[in-house]
Amino acid sequence: MNAVRKGGIVLLFGAPPRGALVSLDASQLFLNETRVQSSYSACETEMRIALELISSRRLNVSKLVTHRFPLERIADAFQLAETGHGAMKVIVEGS
């Protein structure tokens, strides 16, 4: 939450287990005018199946990564991801 600019949006995505709770400092949400938005991506069963397919190598996802950037070129990575010219998945790798 501290990395979001004033007026920014925090996007929660993925498939948390049922009953999962998130603890937020509500006063900081108001002071920074931060919005929290959820996004449905998959249910627990779908995530489990996808992870099994990937870990068993029945599904090769490495071809989805079209570009890799070192951390020093993170600005270039964000620019490419934003414009989307020939990019599907852009990865930034730390040292």
The outline comes out as: flat
Structural class of the helix and strand makeup? Answer: alpha/beta
Q: What average pLDDT do the residues reach? A: 89
Task: Please list the strands of the largest sheet in the order they lie side by side.
Answer: 1-2
- Taking the alpha carbons of the first and last residues, their distance comes to 24 Å
Please tell me the total number of domains. 2
Number of strands: 4
Oligomeric grouping of the chains: single chain
Helix content: 25-40%
Note poorly predicted spans: none
Provide the β-strand percentage band: 15-25%
Question: Largest sheet at a glance?
Answer: 2 strands, parallel
Rg calc: 17 Å
Helix/strand order, N-terminal first: EHEHEHE
Question: Total helix count?
Answer: 3
Textual characterization of the structure:
The protein has 2 domains: 1-59, no CATH class; 60-95, no CATH class. It has 3 helices and 4 strands. It has helices at residues 26-32, 44-55, 74-83, and strands at 9-14, 35-40, 65-70, 89-93. The strands form 2 sheets. It has a two-stranded parallel sheet with strand order 1-2. The chain is flat, with a radius of gyration of 17 Å. The mean pLDDT is 89.
